[in-house]
Write a structure and sequence with these properties.
alpha/beta, Rossmann fold, seven-stranded parallel beta sheet, six-stranded parallel beta sheet, elongated, Glycosyltransferase_grp1, Glyco_trans_4-like_N, Glycosyltransferase family 1 protein
Amino acid sequence: MAGNDLPEAAAPEAAPLALSGAPLAGLRVALFSGNYNYVRDGANQALNRLVGYLLRQGAAVRVYAPVVEKPAFEPTGDLVAVPAIPVPGRAEYRIPVALSPRVRRDLAAFAPNVVHVASPDVTAHRAVTWARRRGIPVLSSVHTRFDTYPRYYNMAWIEPALTAMLRRFYRRCDALVAPSESMAQVLREERMNYDISLWSRGVDREIFNPGRRDLAWRRGLGIADDEIAVGFLGRLVMEKGLDVFADAVDELVSRGIAHKVLVIGQGPARAWFEARLPNAVFAGFQAGSDLGRAVASMDVLFNPSITETFGNVTLEAMACAIPVVAAEATGSESLVEQGINGRLVRPGAIHAFAEALRGYIEDADLRARHGAAGERRSLDFSWDRINQAVADTYQRLIRQRAKR
């Protein structure tokens, strides 16, 4: 047993879940996250949206995560700092490393009746132990394919050990929520847990819609009205499939297929990506309405990543009526309907990716049909309905625990 899990004074009993008043009155959620707001990405924005929804419904929420001097955005709800160290080679990320006495006292005073862990780090392991000792149910949300990351850094040999570590972590939780059915199926096949439900993702239709398309903005970047913009959207890190993206673009160039590459995002691999795609337009980081404008101003989104469990960028493009070419992998498989709103391609199949892109580049009617179908599909993703599914899972786990 780890030193941080030594016995301590018993926490006050968690308050029972209220059955009246505000819809979620009596629900007390302790949320542990490895990255709640210090770097902006789809996972932490989803967590902030969840906390905002829970608070509006009358729940009490306390978030435990690393903090930095200049976070990417203000956190939603009460945020308590946990001890953390920078990730080696990726200093913009931090690894939570302990459940310190100060945090334990805060946690005990808050008295949660459910614990939610959002990343399989040391602090989350300690939080799971803390909750299990007190008979408090634990839900874990799965946000990324951590076990696939090593292959992008020439360390694929470590994946089996990493998968085994994740299995141990997830099976100590009472239940998991995954953002897509395809990811849930992967978790079942890998025996991560046997209670897995969906916490999908929503899209803000005020920000992401076809009306955001702005040809003047494109012209300002040097993209003519009649040029087809193949877009990349996301954090510029190798695990997003930047090498596959660049190789497929190389093939388009070698075949003389006219197009323009539009890259939306920032990250540590930007210099590498710029060197690989010297003729691409790099628009940098975009947020809010600017991001909606950038996405709607693409003509096709190319998402070769296999690390996402959902694919927020895919859904955002669909909401803007932009067809998608994506890797046949978790997340995208649950959003892209083959030959209806986009194309799914075997991961790493450069020729097939280039051929799928060629179809959209050369056929305006195909782009319009598949884009319209994607927009219709995006209407199914309402944030409030999606976040209520997590609240329902919390309540179910609390009821199940009370019957033991």
